[in-house]
Structure formats: structure tokens, C-alpha cells
Amino acid sequence: MSPLGGQVFAGVEATDPRMNALGTLNFHLNRQLNAYNKEDPSPICVMLCPLAILLWIQQALGRGKDTGRAIANLCILAFFFLLWTGENSAGGRDTCSTPFCLWDVNFHRGERRYHAHRRSITDAYIDATDFIGLRFDDHKNAIKGEQMGHGRFFADAILVAVISNHMKYLRFHRASADVPLCAALEGERWRSVQLPEIMAALQAAACTIRHCHGVTPNDISTRSMRSVKTMALFLAGIRGECVKILER
User: Fold this and answer.
1) N or C: which end of the chain has fewer CB atoms below 10 A?
2) Distance in angstroms (rounded) separating the CA atoms of residues 209 and 242
3) Best CA proximity match to 165, nearest among 73, 82, 76
4) How far apart, in whole angstroms, are the C-alpha atoms of residue 185 and residue 70?
5) Which pLDDT tens digit goes with each residue over 90-135?
6) Cα–Cα dist 166/214, whole Å
7) How far is Cα 15 from Cα 198, in angstroms, rounded to an integer?
8) Between β-strands 112-115 and 105-109, what pairing exists: parallel, antiparallel or unpaired?
């Protein structure tokens, strides 16, 4: 704050708007000046998560107990759809998104589309699906009703197989349309997979195969899956505008 300004106000016998009735600096200006003295924290950088880590989780947990299978499937889902942490698990800090539910999943076969929660479709129809889409509703930076999906070709065949099996699991146990995709059956009740459980699986995989990729448990986090998929899209020649739309 320049002292010259105060001298100008005093010279014309005007009230200094920077001061309050007590003659001290205005509360809001004082907060602003104090904020200038603060330094921004260092940016948090994460190591890219190799797809091999997610495949290791799928192989290690994909045929185990219900919770383990759900964790493995959710990792694949988050990787291919660039999901925020609050969209593929519960217990995250991000309050702008909610986990996707069964009614958000659509199966496409040719020109026909079915919602995953509809009982009229069979497992055979799900296995023959050409395209699987996620419908965005109350999710971060998304327009309500938008849909993003993947077809059964190249690496996306992994996603289609995983999602198909996960949908058949939820439908087999009579999950209602509002059951989150991150739910796993424990006894007779659905329990949502928590973010720390996915984090623990990623770190366990990184610890096991760190000699192959050089990624340590401290280098990896749930946000690593978004980072590596974004890089993969760029390397595949996808236009930056499209990548930004997918990232939301």
C-alpha cells in the first residue's frame, strides 16, 4: 500500500477508504495483503500408471472374492473412462461427483440400446454387445445426459469384457437400478468399495512388479489412472480437444 495515497486523501481532508472507523486498515484489505505473503504449495505430481499394473490387479483379484473382483473391475473402468476418484469408488474427497450406478450403463448392439438394469436383456445379449456406454448425470464437469462409450475392438475389448462380467454379477444378485457400480455383496447387503481399497491394490501391484516398470508404491495414486490414459490418447494421435472433452 503506497503512503502517497494516504497523503493525497489527507491533503484534501477526505476520508481514506482503506481505513475503518477505528483508523486501522480495512479488514478485507488486510486479508488480501496477508494472502500476498503466502506461497502456493508445490504441485502434486504422480507417476503414470502402466496398464500392466491394472492387468496384474485384474489377474490377481479378478477371480477372487466379490470385493476383490469389484476392485479389479473398477480399476479397469477408471482407466478407460478417465473417471475421477469419486466416480468409481466411495469415500473420496471430491464432492462434485457421485459413483456411477447400474442405470448409467447402456448396452448397444447394432441400432438397439438397452439399459443395464432392465431384466428383459439376457447374459447372452450382454456377451454379444458391440458398444458399452456410460451416461453422465450428476458427475463432475459433465453435461447431464451425455454419454461416452467404447466398442469391442483392440484394447477396448478388455474393457467390454470386464464391464460385461461386472454387469452380469450385479444383475445375478438382483441389484436395483440405483446400486453403485462400486458395490460388492457382503452377506445379504451391498457395500461400496472405498477409495483406500483401490489405492491399496494399486500400491500392492506396484510393489510386486516394480522391477519391470520402475514404479514404486509411493509414486502411484488413484489419479495415476487418469494421467496414463490421457497420455495414451495423445500418443495415439487423438486431438487435444477430444482428450479435454473426455477428461472433463
Assistant:
1) N
2) 32
3) 73
4) 10
5) 665 555 567 888 888 888 887 787 777 787 788 888 888 888 888 8
6) 31
7) 60
8) antiparallel
> Running DSSP on this structure, what letter comes out for residue 107?
E
What are the pLDDT digits (tens) for 34-64?
A: 777 766 555 556 667 777 888 888 888 877 7
Which grid coordinates belong to 16? Answer: 481514506
Query: 153-156 long-range contacts, Cβ below 8 Å, gap at least 24?
Result: 155/51, 156/80
| 173 CB-side CA count, 13 A | 18
Other C-beta atoms lying within 10 Å of the C-beta of residue 50: 19
- C-alpha span between 105 and 34 (Å, rounded): 49
**Rounded CA separation 185/179 (Å):** 11
| Cβ atoms 81, 148 nearer than 8 A | yes
Task: Name the amino acid, one letter, at 80.
Answer: F
Give the three cell numbers for residue 161.
Answer: 469384457
Residue 198: CB atoms within 10 Å: 26
What 2-5 contacts at long range (C-beta under 8 Å, 24+ apart), as own/partner pairs, is: none
CA distance 10 to 32: 24
User: Side chain identity at 201, as an amino acid letter?
Assistant: A
Q: What are phi and psi of 166, to 5 degrees?
A: -70, -40
Q: How far is CA 20 from CA 58, 147, 156, in A?
A: 64, 54, 64
CA proximity to 246, closest of 109, 113, 150, 131: 150
> Rounded to 5, what percent of the chain is helix, strand, coil?
45, 15, 40
